[in-house]
């Protein structure tokens, strides 16, 4: 029974992470569009700003909703989350290059890359950025070691 509830916990976190990620995608595209097409900002700068805004939003949504983090060290946690997002961006580009080199059409390559990067981002944030939930759960299960001396 315990492993079933752990699996349920993990799957719920993954679904929430994906939902937050989708909201980030919409925010990224919206910010990029407004900057590029309304304010005529350089497309690459617009895209970079869209990524930063979306990653920041994703951090706070995942912190509050997905992982329910109580960690008071927000700045180091944000740096961890953002670093993982940047590594995910690099991994995304690498996957697209690799898949297109293997003669997979660009948009199929991009879709495969999004799939790979989703699991990278989720696992890295679950086990690194928001790991305190695991520590707290472990502490609740631990029994105090009481020795009586005579």
UniProtKB/TrEMBL annotation:
Domain GtrA/DPMS transmembrane: 16-130
Protein origin, superkingdom: Bacteria
Entry annotated with the keyword Transferase: no
Keywords: Membrane, Transmembrane, Transmembrane helix
Coarse class of the protein's main subcellular location: membrane
Membrane topology: Multi-pass membrane protein
Membrane-spanning intervals of the chain: 12-35, 41-61, 73-99, 111-130
One Pfam match: GtrA_DPMS_TM
A biological process from GO: polysaccharide biosynthetic process
UniProt KW Ribonucleoprotein keyword: no
Residues of the signal peptide: none
Subcellular location: Membrane
InterPro entries: GtrA_CellWall_Glycosyl, GtrA_DPMS_TM
PANTHER family: PROPHAGE BACTOPRENOL-LINKED GLUCOSE TRANSLOCASE HOMOLOG
Family: Belongs to the GtrA family.
Protein name: Putative flippase GtrA (Transmembrane translocase of bactoprenol-linked glucose)
Species of provenance: Pedobacter suwonensis
Taxonomic placement: Bacteria, Pseudomonadati, Bacteroidota, Sphingobacteriia, Sphingobacteriales
